[in-house]
Amino acid sequence: MANPLTRMPTVFVAHGSPMAALETGQSSQVWARLGKELPRPRAILCISAHWETQGTRVTSMAHPPTIHDFRGFPPALYDMQYPAPGDPALAREIARETGAQLDDGWGLDHGCWTLLHHMYPEAGIPVLQLSLDTAKTAAEHLAMGRRLRPLRDRGVLVLGSGNVVHNLRQGLGAHPPPAWATAVNSQVRSWVREGREGELVRWREKGPDFRLAINSGEHFLPLLYVLGAAQEGEQVEVFNDRLEMGSIAMTSYKFG
């Protein structure tokens, strides 16, 4: 268990296809290594692209179910379970500190458990999810991330799960990747390294390449939570830096 006086890193991990849960490819190997390299957390708070709500919610049940929120995949994927415990007491703390509502109707969606299956295969660490409030602006999502910052000092891993570049309608399967996907992934990488949060929250104003690459936005927003949870001047590590299937960026970031 993490020393409560030791600040946990905060990490944005690109999750890609749900099939990664079954595979032992490059990403799954990176996630397994990440789980071994990080200090062991007391609990994990995951902000996934796949839980959008009206108002912010935090899962509060003792035993969150594994959610198979996808269609058209092999039966073996639907048979997978990730039986990590929840932490109702921590959920109440997070609700008090962030204004989130307690939620016992969700669980762990594939943006969360497909990563954790490789990072912590024993499923022994309590896991909670925090939702994306669809009414919030990008700046408000970043500000919510800042409210999560104290959790890191209490042994909680704040884990964002999405993809900086994510467009399933254009560019998917292209080889080489479209120029707009490469350009946006590179620009975001530079802004993250330079700590230019103001540029990142204004991504909708950055022109057609950004609108193609980030598209509907929900896969980008978890990065803002991790940026908010990061401390100014913390070391940034970029890993798994590549484009997959043409228009999905697997580029991931660790702070601290």
TrEMBL record:
GO terms for molecular function: ferrous iron binding; oxidoreductase activity, acting on single donors with incorporation of molecular oxygen, incorporation of two atoms of oxygen; zinc ion binding. InterPro entries: Extradiol_dOase_DODA, Xdiol_dOase_suB. It comes from Auxenochlorella protothecoides. Belongs to the DODA-type extradiol aromatic ring-opening dioxygenase family. This is Uncharacterized protein YgiD. Pfam families: LigB. CDD domains: 45_DOPA_Dioxygenase. It comes from the Eukaryota. Keywords: Metal-binding, Oxidoreductase, Zinc. Its cofactor is Zn(2+). Gene3D superfamilies: LigB-like. Residues 12-255 form the Extradiol ring-cleavage dioxygenase class III enzyme subunit B domain.
